[in-house]
Amino acid sequence: MTIENVTPDLASEGTGVAGSPHPLPSRDTCEKVLEKMLLVRRFEERAGEMYAKAKIGGFLHLCIGEEATIVGATQALRDTDYLMSTYREHGQALARGTPSAEVMAELFGKATGCSGGRGGSMHLFDMKRRFLGGYGIVGGNLPLAAGVALASDYTGTDDATLCMFGDGATNQGTFGETMNFAALWSLPVVFMVINNQFGMGTALERHSAVTDLSQKSAGFGVPGARCDGMDLLDVHACVSTALEKARGDRVPQLVEAVTYRYRGHSMADPEEYRTKEEVEKWLGRDPIAAFSKRVVEEGVLGEEEVKRLDEDAMRAVDEAVKFADESPFPDLSSLYDDIYVIGDQVRRPYWSTDLRSPDTHRGEEERQAGEVAHELAELGSLHEPETDEQQREARARGEGG
Amino acid sequence: MPQMRYREALRLALREEMQADENVFLMGEDIGVFQGAFKVTQGLLQEFGEKRVRDTPISENTIVGMGVGAAMTGLRPVVEIMTVNFSLLALDQIVNCAASIRYMFGAQVSVPMVIRMPQGAGHQLGPTHSHSFEALYLHVPGLLVAVPSTAADAHGLLKAAIRDDNPVIFIEHETLYGRRGEVPENAEPINFGEAVVRREGSDVTIIGISRMAETALKGAEQLAAEHAIESEVIDPRTLRPLDLDTILESVRKTNRAVIVEEGWPHGGVGANMAALIQEQAFDWLDAPVARVAGGDVPMPYSKPLEQAAFPHEEHVVSAALSTFRDL
Ligand SMILES: Cc1ncc(C[n+]2csc(CCOP(=O)(O)OP(=O)(O)O)c2C)c(N)n1
């Protein structure tokens, strides 16, 4: 089937996967993708709970509802391909194979997290699995992805890069800039708009003059296609074709997956911009329920097996929470580590004006600063953070993005 | 020793590093067919071809961002931003990506890239084309900042910058491009964090940044000729890392310090350096640290106004004299 024109209006009566034109893949594949979608779902639910308990700080953006989009797309990647995402990227990391324990530990700010506790929920990273990050700046990852694709091309590999971002990001300057660059330089990159219909609280039709986002890149020389983001198989087919064109023909592609996020933009979102009915309607198209139903109906997996997969996912998430909980916070002495690559230019101790850094503070001769600086560092770390109660209140007020 | 212009020294460094390492490549607006807005990259497209000398669209933020992405995955991009003024469009990628990525992702990757760009006033280009932004970039942990003022330093520091595994903001100066200087044959890279004493003296320490190293030196000659004051002139050459040792050593000898920069005074390089000097050498100071900076205004176009809005040697002289006012 062609990838163009798959799903004109997904908000209306969803046909569900059963009506999908794509045949189910092998039993193993069905099991694997369902397992991944369930892991993402259960992980996100638990992360939400952990946030409410203030185990997790900052912002937390859940992807519940977008599982088919995430897993369908990442399944189309080779191990050697690169993936980049936004701050809503727990699912992407998990789908790419980053252990849920490391992802949860990162959310908890622990040293064992996949970014060493430096990045948090919005900045997951796993070089080993070529998951090149979560980025907190809307539209900020597009240029990076094109640069990665440039490196792949420059060094003569046939690696491709898949770069995911939200519908809101298509309004950033970097969107147009990067499309133009990618087409101009024939880069092996696929851009994927996860159109979950909102940029925070601003609905698609209120933030983008063109609402068929798959058309937004064409004027820059990047052909676009649209797929049903609630249908794993449709996403997979569409992204596979796009990757083929980007990799083989060196024509970068845009894929728009139309999906829906069932939770708020972040945990701080009172969701006053949409109706219950609308959410209900989309809940009727739950991508996991639909896929599960279909694999059972077609006799590929038994109901018991599906249940077992779900239980496995919950167990994995329990273990992830336990691991995260029991892991240590990063050592205070590591505060200044890894800002620079220490080498010929930057030799320890390099000069910094931050007097709390024992390593960088010199002039001991004058003031015996070593110990003072250590004390200051300790004091800084003891500085009262917000209490859980204060955090919860701030969250209830819907502060921040 | 061969004499060459500052821009030629930069070109030589680019050529040598491109010859030495396949993964070094250049990208920027008009650096290829047009040969560079300031002709730094002249001839390099012809020599290295389009794969390694890449003309880009006018998209600063994405140019830098692509450099970061390429650097994260094995290349060593040298990005040219036409002038420092336009780097404001790329601040997001410079600060949120280039400078942060290594730290934020737990040191799983590094960003070995160089962002070259010239700055400076004096060409009647008005407020949008005359900025000096070393203070802005100095502010950001994760970046290295070089401000070469001579041909030899331009050559040696650029070579070092390209070989370094950190993102480097490499600030050139539009006025200096045409200056001639000696560049030793087969010159080695110059380590960051090593200041040079351009003139020895025991009465006052004058620290000049970027083009102001030259202005400081002229001021020092005038101080010697007209006031019998012997200044020690220091060019830090890099601001991150900063060779504060050399500066402090000099201040402990002269007991006076003057810092000269072209950028704005508030939150400037001088403000920061004055704080460091008083923190580290308060007991040696005989006078408050003096600062000479650009006017606290958007750079005006009109020639007399513009000339009045950035430092000249007479400002250096009067600032130095002010440190002696109690004598
Ligand atoms: C440059 C920038 N501006 C604003 C924000 C605040 N912000 C965070 S997410 C968001 C909405 C983005 O919506 P979209 O791109 O559709 O992605 P989604 O959150 O729906 O996944 C906004 C405005 C930001 N992080 N970065």
List keywords for this structure.
heterodimer; A: 401 residues; alpha/beta; Rossmann fold; 2 domains; five-stranded parallel beta sheet; two-stranded antiparallel ribbon; 14 helices; 41% helix; globular; disordered N terminus; B: 327 residues; seven-stranded mixed beta sheet; five-stranded mixed beta sheet; 36% helix; 18% strand; binds thiamine diphosphate
Explain what this protein looks like in three dimensions:
The complex is a heterodimer of chains A (401) and B (327). Chain A is of the alpha/beta class and 401 residues long. Chain A folds into two domains: 317 residues, Thiamin diphosphate (ThDP)-binding fold, Pyr/PP domains (Rossmann fold, 3-Layer(aba) Sandwich); 65 residues, no CATH class. Chain A has 14 helices and seven strands. In chain A, the strands form two sheets. Chain A has a five-stranded parallel β-sheet, with helices on both faces. A two-stranded antiparallel ribbon of chain A has the order 4-5. In chain A, a hairpin with a 2-residue loop joins β4 and β5. The radius of gyration of chain A is 23 Å and the shape is globular. Chain A starts with 26 loop residues before the first helix and ends in a 5-residue tail after the last helix. Chain B folds into two domains: 180 residues, Thiamin diphosphate (ThDP)-binding fold, Pyr/PP domains (Rossmann fold), CATH 3.40.50.970; 127 residues, Rossmann fold (3-Layer(aba) Sandwich). Chain B is built from twelve helices and 14 strands. In chain B, the strands form three sheets. A seven-stranded mixed β-sheet of chain B has the order 3-2-4-5-7-6-12, with helices on both faces. In chain B, β10, α8 and β11 form a beta-alpha-beta unit. In chain B, α9 crosses α10. The radius of gyration of chain B is 20 Å and the shape is globular. Chain B starts with a strand and ends in a 5-residue tail after the last helix. At the A-B interface, α5 and α6 of A face α3, α4, α5, α7 and α9 of B. The site of thiamine diphosphate has 16 residues of chain A, from β2 and β4.
